Amino acid sequence: MASLSRWTGTPGRQTLQTIVKKLIPQWANGLYSYQEDVVLRVLDGQDVLCCLNTGGGKSAMFAVPLIVLREMTRNPHLYPRLRTRARPVGIVITPTKGLAANIVLELQKLDVPAFAYCHETITDYHKKGENLVKIIADCKTYSLICVDPEHLRDDSWRRITASDTFRANVIFGCVDEAHLINEWGAEFRPLFKHIGAFFRGRLPSSVAIMALSATIQPGAETDSICRSLGFSGNSFYHLRLSNDRPNVQFTIQTLDHGFSSDEFPELLDYLNQNRKTVIHCRRIEDLQRLFMYAFDSLPAGLDRLRRIKTYHSLHSLDINTETLRLLDEDPMCQAVFATVAFTNGLNVRSLVDSLAYNFPKTLNLKLQEAGRVGRDPETTARAVTFLQPSVLSDAEKQISGRVDPPKISRKTGKPVRAKKPKPIEHSAALVLSESKCYIAAINRIYQNPPLETSALDCISAKRLLPCSLCGKRKKINIEFPSSPLPSGMTLPPFIALATAHSAPLTPEEKKLKLSKKEREDVMLALGKFAEDLRRAEQHHPDNQHRPKSAYFPSSLREHLAAKLLSLDSLFDLHALLTTWNFASSYAGLLYDLVVELQATIRSDRETARLEKNAKQRATRSSKKAREMSEVDEMDTDPDLSDVDDHPRSSPIPPPAKRTKTGTGNVLKEVTNRKKASSGGKQASRGKTSSTAKVQVNVGKERQTLAAISAGFGPAYRTTSDRRRARAG
C-alpha cells in the first residue's frame, strides 16, 4: 500500500485549492497564501501559533480543514491519498458563549455543522432527554464543538475525550483569542491557564494544537502563551503578520466633564451621524447610565428600543444572538451598548464606529474593541476612546518617572499625602503618553512589519485615516459617511434633554423631583426589593454565578428613583427596564411597589401641606389675639388715667428733662405688671385656644384627604388598600 502524501506537499496544496474553489464560491480568489500555509500544517497535525489583524480571516483556519476532510470523505475517489478522517471533528475553546454562537452561525453559512457547548444548549438537550455526550463523541452530528475552559473540567468531557470514535476523528484543538490565556488566566478565569494541559493530556499526540489571536505582543507575552500550550523550539509553526487596521481611524478624545455624570453630550455628536456603532462600557452600571441617556434623548415610542440595544453576559444567549442579527440586517438598529462580552472575536460586518468610555486595562483589549468595526475592508471606520485628561498625565508620569512635588497644607504647613494613581499596563501607558503618532506607537509595540514604514507617523507613512494626534497636528478633518438606509427612511436625531444646569426647573418638574428624605426612603424600599429578588432567584441554575449587584443594579435603582413620580403606567416602567434581566418576571411586582411609593409620597406631601397651612393660620390667629389684647389693656388700665390739672393760680413749672425714668418707661413698666397679673391668664387662654384650633383644622383636613383618596381610586391608595377593596 502506497504511503500517504503530506498536505504541505504539492498534491496537498492543489487539493486544498480545488476543494475551496468548489465548495466556497463566494471566496472568488480562494484563500490567502498565509491561510493556506496554516491550514495545510493543521491537516498534517502540526502545532500553530497565528498572530494577524482582526478581520484577517483567522476563523477560516479552523473551518477550512473540516470542509476539506468532509469533502474527501464524501468523494475519496476524486482526490489523491492524503491524511484524512472518516468523521472529521475539531474543538475550539472560546472565551464567551456569544463568540461561540457567532462562530456557529458563521460556519453554518459554510455548511459546517457546529455546536456551542454552553449552559443553555446543554439544558435544551437535557429537556429533550437526549444524550449529548454520545452525540458529540460519535462525531456524526457536529463537526465543530465550541466550548469554554470551565466546561472542560466536567465529567462529560472526560467521557467525550475517552471515546475511541472521538479520538480517531478529532483533528485539532484550537484556542481562539489566545491572548486571554495571559490576561484572564492570571486572576479573572484561571482555567484559561489549563487549556494546554487539557489538550496535551486528553487528546491524541497526532492532533494539531492551534492558537489564534490579533493581539499577542512579541517577547515575554508570546513566550508565556507558548509555555502554557506546550509549544517549544521548532516544533510549531509561528505566523506573525501586522495587526494594523488601515481602514480604522484611532482617536483619543478627552472629556470636559466627570464620568460620574449622567450626561454624555459627546456621545450624541457621534450617534447623530447615523453610523452603526458599538459603545464599549467597562461595567454594567456604566452601560445602564449611557443607555438611559441615549434612550431619553430619542423621541418617545417603541422605535427607541429598536434603534438602540444592549449586549452583556446577563442577557440570554438568544437575546444577544438576535441583537447581532439585527445590527447586520435591520437598518434602523443603529447602536449597541456592550460590556467586555462584546470585545473579543465577534464578527458584525455592519459596524463602523467603536466608542469606548475609559481605556481598558490592557492595550490588547483596546485593539480588540477597535477590531469589532470595519470588518468590511471597503468601509471607513473609527475607534474612539473617551477619557479624563488626568489619565493621559498619569501615563506620561509613569513612563517618564516624573514625580510631582508634594502639596503643602495651608493649615499645618506640612506635606499632604497624595493618593497614588493606579499603575497602568506598560504598553497601554506607552500609547497614552505618545505625543506624535498613536499608530506608530502601536506598531512598535507589536513589531508590525515592515518597521521601516510602520514606525513612521501617519503623515509620513501616507495613511488614509491618520490618528487623532496626526490629524490635529496637520489640521486634517475627515468626513465619515452615514450607514446606508433604505430609500425614504430617516432616523430622528438624538436630542439632549434640558437639565438643571441649562434651565431652571418648571413648577411641574419640581413636583416630580424627590426631596432628599423621599429619595432615601425610595432607595431603601428598592434595596429591600433587590434583596428579596436575590433570595428568590439565587438558587436558580441560571444564577449560580450571578453577583449580588447584578440582580437589581444600583444604577437602575437610582434611575428608577429619579423617574418615580413620572411613571404613569406599566408601559412607562418597561421602557426603563430594557436592560434588566428579570423584567419579564418581576416588572409587575416592581410596578406595585412603584404605585405604593407614589401614593405614600403624595399622601405625605398633602398631609405636610395641610399641617403647614394649619400652623400658619394658628400663628396668624395667635399674633392677632396678642395685638388685640395689648390694645384692650391700654384702653382700660386705671393707672394710665389723666392726672389732676394744676390750679390756675399756681405757676406753670418748666418742662421736665427726659430721663430713663420718663413717661414711656413708666407706661412700659405698668403694662408689664398688668401682663404679669391678669394679662398672663388671658394670654394662656389664647394659646390654649390656638392649639385647639390647629388640632381641629388638621383633623378636618385629614378627613378630607381620606375622602379624596377614596374617591380618586388606585392612584391615591396603597397596594394593601386596593387588595382590601378587591376582596370586598
Automatic annotation (TrEMBL):
Residues 39-221 form the Helicase ATP-binding domain. GO terms for molecular function: 3'-5' DNA helicase activity; ATP binding; four-way junction helicase activity; hydrolase activity; nucleic acid binding. It is an enzyme of class 5 (isomerase). One of its GO terms (biological process) is double-strand break repair via homologous recombination. Residues 679-694 have a biased composition (Polar residues). InterPro entries: DEAD/DEAH_box_helicase_dom, Helicase_ATP-bd, Helicase_C-like, P-loop_NTPase. Belongs to the helicase family. RecQ subfamily. This is DNA 3'-5' helicase. It comes from Favolaschia claudopus.
